[in-house]
Amino acid sequence: MNEKYQWVVFYEEFADKLYTYADRKDELFEIIREFESKYRYFQYLKLDKKEWWEPRNYTIDPFSVMAVMNRGLTDENRSIIGELYAEIFNISSPVPTMFSGIPFLNNMRSFLGDTENNPLWTLFEVALKYAETKVVTNLV
Q1: Distance CA 128, CA 34 (A)
Q2: How many CB atoms lie within 10 A of CB 73?
Q3: Residue 71: what are its φ and ψ, rounded to 5°?
Q4: Alpha-carbon distance 107 to 77, whole Å?
Q5: Helix (H), strand (E) at residue 122
Q6: Concatenated DSSP letters of 90-109
Q7: Domain of life here (predicted)?
Q8: Is residue 1, in this structure, part of any structural domain at all?
């Protein structure tokens, strides 16, 4: 694989690891809360803001977790976040040092949100199944 796209294998494994939290969303939220308390890269999430997170049942969607690495940061800082994720989620793929082709998210609000209906978790599941089977799954 082209060195510029070394992130693909890491992101694939990361997505698989995140999917294991589909039925443990509260655990995933606590992991990210722990990161927020220790690392500045996560502080924009403001997990203590009741008005943001209570409507989401204090859960975080997988796209928002991945988005922390996809903000307008240097590749070096994105790699640091990748190292944190690799350690906590036991990702064995090499952490990328280049992120060519991944669009940046707005630094001011790089979380997508979710509701009790979990549409982003559903979309995530459908996307993972499609990546594996190339069969389109009905969302309804």
Answers
A1: 27
A2: 18
A3: -80, 175
A4: 13
A5: helix 119-133
A6: T--SPPPS--TTPPPBPTT-
A7: Bacteria
A8: no
Of 25 and 55, the structure prediction assigns the larger pLDDT to 25
Structure tokens belonging to residue 99:
């992120």
The count of structural domains within the chain is 1
Q: What is the mean pLDDT of residues 23-47?
A: 89
Closest by CA position to 78, among listed 49, 114, 107: 107
Q: Cα(89)–Cα(20) distance, rounded to whole angstroms?
A: 10
Residue 139 lies in a domain: no
Mean pLDDT value across residues 22-38: 92
Quick one: average pLDDT of 85-91? 97
Tokens of 104: 């940046």
Residue 138: inside a domain: no
Backbone phi and psi for residue 105, each to the nearest 5 degrees, phi listed first: -95, 160
pLDDT tens string 104-140: 887 766 667 666 667 888 889 999 999 888 887 766 5
Q: At a CB cut-off of 8 Å and minimum separation 6, what does 83 contact? A: 95
Higher pLDDT among residues 19 and 117, named by residue: 19
Radius of gyration of the chain (CA): 15
Domain that holds residue 31: 6-133
Mean pLDDT of all residues in 6-24: 95
